[in-house]
Amino acid sequence: MTDVISSSRKTHTLTIAGIVDETPDAKSLIFSVPNEARETFTYLPGQFLTLQIPSERSGSVARCYSLSSSPIVDSNLMVTIKRTAGGYGSNWLCDNAAEGMQLNVLPPSGIFTPGSLDSDFLLIAGGSGITPVISIAKTVLSAGTGNVVLFYANRAAESVIFAREVDELSQRSPGRLSVKHWLESERGVPTSELLATEFAAAGIEREAFICGPGPFKDAAVSALRALGYDKSQIHLEIFNSLSGNPFDTSASLASSDSIPGTTVSAEITIGGDVHNIEWPIDVPLVQHLLNRGIDVPFSCQEGECGTCLATVNRGKARMLTNFVLDDDDITSGSILACQALPDCDDMIRIDFDA
Ligand code: FES
């Protein structure tokens, strides 16, 4: 494993230790992590890796893939990738990934993770949306005390990723895991009304985690809200294609240095360290911290992934773009630091650890 860009970027080269054919169009890539990088690649169930994939047209593209392994159960990191029509990154990996291949990887990140493993869960997966969901299920059943209902929708039986693993998990967890499969080939597309009927028996005292295609997620959210789930109980994984490339450091560093502007005093807490800095009013916070050599969690730098989530505890900041946070999140002080600019004259305090 090599630090290929800089310590603050935390980009590493990992070797593919194994490949598992999950279905005719889905593969799992298993990465071995050397002992010296174990801490860097510590992760929570539901998080993802960002991979750098070679591209003849642009040199490389960055793609995020959810970890399907469990940090408690599995010794190696595994991401599961499904072919998609016109999906360059996924298709390239399905066609070219091989044991021994090295890929540049950003450390795990993402906010689609349970706050406690001891809650009861309703896990809702559509197709390849099972990848972070099975990581959560395995981890809760192994290290938590919660009871899990897994609703898993697929087009047809042959496209069910982890069919055997889900079945074995269910058998190993009597009374704690209940699995409901839904095959569109037999029952049609699940509407919100049909989903509400499916979810009703699980009750509403659960944390709901939803991952899958957009219309499926929308239908699931409508169903949960109709049943009486509070918004705070519903957690959505957002699959946005990255429009930027977090592996391309030169462009962002140059552009941030070239913009002059006044500054605001800022107190930034990251990983328990407090940094008192002057923050230029026209440079997004993540970019400014990276320029100063301060390690900060980020991936897309496009407001699309939520990796750079932070909380404004004093003062005010605004975002250039936001595809992750809703109005309630913003009202409670959450901000995407990669899109954040100061929006006050006095000192601003931002906490990445809250
Ligand atoms: S790094 Fe992805 S939203 Fe900020």
TrEMBL record:
Signal peptide: none annotated. SUPFAM superfamilies: 2Fe-2S ferredoxin-like, Ferredoxin reductase-like, C-terminal NADP-linked domain, Riboflavin synthase domain-like. Keywords: 2Fe-2S, FAD, Flavoprotein, Iron, Iron-sulfur, Metal-binding, Oxidoreductase, Plasmid. Its cofactor is FAD. Residues 266-354 form the 2Fe-2S ferredoxin-type domain. Residues 9-115 form the FAD-binding FR-type domain. Pfam families: FAD_binding_6, Fer2, NAD_binding_1. GO terms for molecular function: 2 iron, 2 sulfur cluster binding; flavin adenine dinucleotide binding; metal ion binding; oxidoreductase activity. It comes from the Bacteria. The keyword Iron-sulfur applies. PROSITE patterns: 2FE2S_FER_1, 2FE2S_FER_2, FAD_FR. This is 3-ketosteroid-9-alpha-hydroxylase. It comes from Rhodococcus opacus (Nocardia opaca).
